[in-house]
Each structure stands twice: as structure tokens, then as C-alpha cells.
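Researcher: Please predict.
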Amino acid sequence: MAEFKSDIEIARAAKKKPIQEIGSRIGIPNEHLLPFGHDKAKLSAEFIQSVQKNRDGKLILVTAINPTPAGEGKTTTTVGLGDGLNRIGQKAVICIREASLGPNFGMKGGAAGGGLAQVVPMDDMNLHFTGDFHAITSAHNLLSALIDNHIYWGNELGIDTRRVTWRRVMDMNDRALRQITCSLGGVANGYPREAGFDITVASEVMAILCLAKDLKDLEKRLGDIIVAYRRDKSPVFARDLKAPGAMTVLLKDALQPNLVQTLENNPAFVHGGPFANIAHGCNSVMATTTALKLADYVVTEAGFGADLGAEKFFDIKCRKAGLKPAAAVIVATVRALKMNGGVKKEDLGAENIEAVKKGCANLGRHIENVKQFGVPAVVAINHFHADTEAEIQAVKDYVAQMGEEAILCKHWAQGSAGIEDLARKVVQLAEGGSSQFAPLYADELGLFDKIDTIVKRIYRGDGAIADKSVRDQLHQWEKQGYGHLPVCMAKTQYSFSTDPNLRGAPTGHTVPVREVRLSAGAGFVVAICGEIMTMPGLPSKPSSEKILINENGEIDGLS
């Protein structure tokens, strides 16, 4: 059935249960659910506080090989595994990110899973949902307005208008706004200066919301944002503009995790949404830590391949929140491995065992990288109907040679029934207690050395390179007391290198760091590498061309 229906048609036919019933399964009383309609709700801050003394469940990370146009199905596998764990009698909760409107109307699509492994309501989740992204956009741009307003009314703080670092954001892909000139039009409109827009998911406010522990922590972090520098290069903070109070008011409801359900009526928290290629790529700490207090297993994902998402999950989120993952699942598809082996997308339907074997080098590197963090891993082969037995066996054999196991998963077509084997293996790994998790580098390591460590140990490059101005900026931040922060690599998701066309497992490359940004509120330094953009553009034929309201008043075209 699933093979002949689109994701949105499957989601539309879902037999959803009232959200209060879903909440009750994990011990959330009705009065602590703030409903948005009948099928989604926010969790009250009072309830979150009340469960803090509960014991923690086991945290499972779902990551993947480098993404390709062939598709990998990381979110689909995350949802499927959560359903599978519940199917075999475990109390499991899923934690994933919210979807951004930009890629929804662009090329990537939504973030609710697919086939019979989806979170619903899919159309709401992929559009406005509960308004969290709009709140983040508003809070971010309030701070932008306050900066220019302060300069207009006399600039008491002595902001150097050439050194305003706080850009504006919107939740849409719009390349025309990457670099702008603002305040044109005469004296009444302020002082003209260069500025620009990032996409909302790249906002430091998004990162702060996803890393904050509570409202008080949120407000403090917002105050720590550096928005500009004076002529003597001393920083100007958001708190200097008296901005954190009003920003926190705008974010008060957005900070509360959202509860929804899978097609099989299992609980899922969907909260926050930083991209992993330009931000830290994980759902909120509040959602994850709360789920761990309510379930025996929490299945979460990190964006794109393990070189970006998993590295940032381990080195930023787990470090900052004190999380200790029990196991990791690395998702791969035969189709994507063939692309990594040099096969063109239009030729993926034909059996090509040699290309699979060649492409497995990409998978092998991700396995090695995850194991560097001391976390036991298993490979999930996300099944496509055109995969042949010989191709599947080639993947299994390769992974076995690395001392690990690859398990075929058919959750897209069969739901939880198709992923029971993976669920049992995850329980075996988690209960085995073999996880010896540790971040890749120590807090005390220099900022550039942290970047270089990631390049050498995760990307397997010869090292990072940067102009003297970039290195000087990092040294200055170290002198100002920010040297202990982790680094967040902004880099193409398609390759271990900064060349998106260099697939497989390249070595010998260097990673150019062209810009660094201090996210003092979020608590990390962003290293922008190669040609990566913090405001994406739309493709020549954006997905928006296919999205419409049909004759029945229903949304079509979302994926």
C-alpha cells in the first residue's frame, strides 16, 4: 500500500489519537498539556520541572552517511526505530527537529519521516506547526531593530557601525538577501550600513533555544549574545541594549517542547531545528532531557551525515547538556552507496555490486568516526524496493569486516514490523553497557586546534587553513575568555571535504576556514568553511511549484 501512496496521502489517512491519550502513555497529565488542536500540544514548564528527579532512560542517536540525491532516510529510520522499540515492548519516545519552511519550498523537503514511518500531523509539522520558528525569527529581528534604533538615537554604547555582527533572519531560502545595504532613504531612516540575512535555522537564537535548560538560562544566554564591537574592538552585548527580557517574552512558549505522535500512535517530541551544515543540527536539550525522564529509550537524530550532525551532537550538545549516548545507528541505503561509488542518479536502478563496494568506503569512515567517540554502533540498511540481494549482502559483508553488524530495515513499507531486528540490536547494544562516550577534544584545546582536530580526525584531511585575520580573531576571543568553547563547523554536507562533488572517502584535502563567528550566547564558535552559505538559495525548479490546495481543500505536494 505504502509504495503507491505519497507520504502526505499516508499521513492524511492516519488514525490519530487525541494528544492527551498520547501524553498519558508517558505519564503526562492532561492539565500539563497545552493543546494546539486535537493532535499536538506543548508541555508545561511545571511538569518538566516535576520529573527532574526521575531516572534517565537510554539515549540512542540515529545518524547517517553523507547525504546524496538518492536519499538516505535518517528521520524515517528514527521514527521507525522508535515504533520498533515500542513494538518489542520497550517504552520509547522519539525526539526530532522541526522543519524549516526554506527547504520545504526549496529542494530538501520536510522533516517528518516517510512511508509508514512518519510523525503526524505531517502537513502542520512541515508548515507553521506551533509557531516556534516564527517566534525565533521575531525575537532575533527584535534585537536587530534595537541595534539600529540605538545607533539612530545617539549611539550611547559607541557601536562601530562597520562592526555590527548581528544579521537579520527569515525562515525562507532567499539568496537575494545574503548581503544588503540597510537604512537608506535619508536622515529619518538612520545610518546606512552593510548588513545581510541568514535563514532562521542558522540564528544564534535558534541555537540558544535548543541548548537552554529553562527560561532563566534562556534569558541569560540571550543577554550574552555579542551583537557588535566598538572602535576599540570591545564587544557590545544584547544585555547592553536591554534586549533579553523582551526577547524571552517572545520565546516563552517556543521554549516548551511539542508533543505529537507517529502513525502507530507512539509519542514524539518535535522541537527546535538548527541545520547541521550551518548550525549544530540537533533538537532541543529540553525535549531530549525531558524525554529521558519519561521513557526507557529515547531515539533522536542529528542532521545530515555523521561528519557534521553526529560530531556536533557529541561535541556540542552532549558536552553542554551532560548527555551520554548508549548507542548509535548509522543509516545507509544501497542507492546512496552506489552514488558514492560513482553511479549517476538515473542509473541507480541497475544492479552494480562493485559500485556498492566502492561506495562503502564512505560508510566505513562514518563507522570509524562514531567509534572514536566511544559509542557502539550498528548500521541500518534502509531498504528500497529495487535493492538486490547481492547488493544488500555486499553491504553486510563490508560492515562485518569492520567488526560491526548491518541490519536490513523495511520500516518505510512495513512500519514497525519491518524494523524489529534493528530494535532488538539497539537494546542489546544499549543494555550491554559498552558505551564509553567522550568528546573528541578537550575544552582547554585552542580554538584553531579544535577546528584542525575535527578536520584531521573526522574529515581525514591534512588540516585546516585560514588567513591571518581569522587566526587573529580566534586568538582575540581566547584572550577574552572564550577559548574553552567548542567549535561548530559550517561546511557542505555532501562530502568529507569542502567540495560537494567529492564523494566517497577522500583524503589529502585541506579545509579552508574563510570566516569565524562567535556565538557567545549559544556557547560555541562557528567556523565557516569553503563556499557554504548561511542563507541558502532555491533550486531552478523549487518544490513550491508542486505545493497547492487540491479540489478537496487538502494540501498536496509536501514531502
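Model: The two ends are 17 Å apart (CA to CA).
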